[in-house]
Amino acid sequence: MVTRGTARFGIGDEQVTLTRGEVLFFHPGQDHVLLSASADLGLFALALSPELAAHACGNLSTVAGRGCQMSEAETARLERALTEQGSVTSAEAFEAPLGELFCVVRARSNQTHVLSRLALQHVTTDPSVSGVELGSAVCAQPSALSRHFHKDLGIRWVEYRARLRLMAFVKFVDRGHAMSRAALDAGFGSYAQCHRVFTSALGCSPRHYFNGGRRGVDDALFQAGTR
């Protein structure tokens, strides 16, 4: 949510400029990058865990990867609430304004096509599902699924699925799984496939990333995203 100044974001193939009170919504793994910003930019970047999102907002697969415009009163109220979060010790008090903001975005955002919603629901449950399997499950052509998904989220279906798999792979390795086991648990057909996707996405091998290179890679990605 932008509170002052302007920011220009890239969402897949599109570019969106935000000013005060405007909000962008991103699904996990969705392609987005901050392209430029005014010197006086004020911006809150928030993330909800899947569990909190489900509790506070219900099914978020209906929300397209875009945003909405908050009223001046809503913007001012949420800006105060979010600024005060640093001194909050109660989990309930901390989560309330975040859940409220996501609920507002869900209510006002453009709605995804039914095929995009079904694709999001299936891939969130099973990142290993293929386009052919999904098409068969929902009685639709994979090409139609891919077309609507790209239109709603600004990213191709196969790219989105690969990013979810990579996120799951990192999570499993962080939990202590061997990389080969983590790759299979994340939905990759083999560790070799995971290695190719990981290296293409992050510019380094999984072994380099987890053996001391993680901070440097993450910092480089952050710097690239804020230029």
Overview of this protein structure:
- The chain is mainly alpha-helical.
- It is built from ten helices and seven strands.
- Strand 2 and strand 3 (14-18) form a beta hairpin.
How does the overall form come out from the CA principal axes? globular
Estimated structural class? mainly alpha
Weakly predicted, low-confidence segments: none
Tell me the β content.
5-15%
Number of domains: 3
How many individual helices?
A: 10
Mean pLDDT: 81
Order of secondary-structure elements: EEEEEEHEHHHHHHHHH
Order of neighbouring strands in the sheet with most strands:
3-2-5
Classify the helix fraction into a percent range.
Answer: 55-70%
Summarize the structure in short:
The protein is mainly α and 227 residues long. The chain has helices at residues 50-57, 72-83, 91-108, 114-125, 131-138, 142-153, 157-174, 179-185, 191-202, 206-225; strands at 2-4, 7-11, 14-18, 22-24, 33-37, 42-43, 67-69.
Keywords summarizing the entry:
single chain; 227 residues; mainly alpha; Arc Repressor Mutant, subunit A; 3 domains; three-stranded antiparallel sheet; two-stranded antiparallel sheet; 11% strand; globular
